Amino acid sequence: MIKTSIAGAILALLPAAAFAQATLTAETTSPGSTPHYIDTTLAAVLDADGVATMQITEGATLTNSVQAVAEGQLDMAPAPLILPFLLSRGVGPYSGVGAEKGAELAGNIRALFFSAPSAQLFGHYNSGAIQGIEDIEGKRIYNGPPRGAALTTGRAAIQLLSGLKDGEGYEGVQTPWPDTVSTITGGAVDGWTLPEGLPSGRQIAIAAAGGTTIYDMPSELLNSELGQQIVNAPGNAPYSIPIEEYRAAYTGNDITIVTDDDTFDTFALAFAQIVPATMDEDLAYQITKSYLAGQERFETGSPRGPYLFLSFGDIDGTSQGVCGAVTMKLHPGAVRAYEEAGHSIADCVKP
């Protein structure tokens, strides 16, 4: 009896959060991708802080994940911003949803934080049929999963590089994310275009089967009318890293990096970490608070850490790509966490 009383007294003194840890369902991309690293790191941070346990399903098609969050069937997912934009209009992969229902569903989504971790590139094997971007015509090009944001940007990248459209001048090949590397290394395609973090585990795995060459978007093309339309399209953002820094990220791998100047220039996919608008405000606050406090872990836990472009500071909306064609509101709990940490939040991002 005495032991029970002592145990109860000790429990009463411990933080309540330690005994109220939430369980969150989440979906993310395949291992080796940047969203996967962000989600698994977030899961570790939340678990260490006693905030939540994340049950993560890997290899998801984010088109489906975004809709699942909007419908309240999923607690969290990384969302390329183009997807909530398309959902809000009921077009593209959400054409079956319709405009009215799509707008309603998109209104159910809130963000906890933002990132721009994946930049578009083009690659091929050095021993293959393609020896440069001028060889794309008539070839088989892997350009993403069967549907979604990556397929949209993949098709845009090839059109910018070659002037060709999928099915008109080249054959686009799509498979689910988990099959990407095996599709490429198995010889089913002549080249590929993918949104990748730096360094990309996927590109390293592809190069393990033979030397590869990776290209950015040449400046002349990127600065063209079409190039600027793509860079400024909903869900995209400009991306530029000094070429020596980009090459250094792949040191020790048989990967050649080709650019037309001293920077690797392309366009990035802008992301939001999304949750249902109905998520408990205090839970959203605790998650975001732990995320902000875990900055060092995110930035040092992987070689790609410095290139995640995560929102650990002020949010002006424009830099995150969420106050123009794309609108994405922060969850009230996230706003509280950011402001408590001393960061300013643009009015256009506040709910």
Describe the protein's architecture and organization:
With 351 residues, the chain is of the alpha/beta class. It has 14 helices and twelve strands. The strands form two sheets. Strands 3, 4, 5, 6, 7, 8, 9, 10, 11 and 12 form a ten-stranded mixed beta sheet that branches. The chain has a two-stranded parallel sheet with strand order 1-2. It is globular and about 55 Å long.
| Estimated helix fraction | 25-40%
Characterize the main sheet.
Answer: 10 strands, mixed
Put simply, the count of helices is: 14
Secondary-structure element string: HEHEHEHHEEHEEHEHEHHEHEEHHH
Morphology: globular
Report the β-strand fraction as a percent range. Answer: 15-25%
The average pLDDT value, as a whole number, equals 91
**Helix and strand composition category:** alpha/beta
- The rounded Rg comes to 21 Å
Number of strands: 12
pLDDT below 50 for ≥5 consecutive residues: which ranges?
Answer: 1-19
End-to-end distance, in Å? 51 Å
